[in-house]
Amino acid sequence: MQHKGTQILETERLILRPFQASDVEPVFQN
To answer: Are 23 and 30 contacting, i.e. CB atoms less than 8 angstroms apart?
Structure first.
């Protein structure tokens, strides 16, 4: 088994991806 990093999961209503530094501001906005 080889680790390929975090995979992005995407559906019609949801996108799951790794946390990024650019996510900090929107977290505090909500």
So the answer is: no
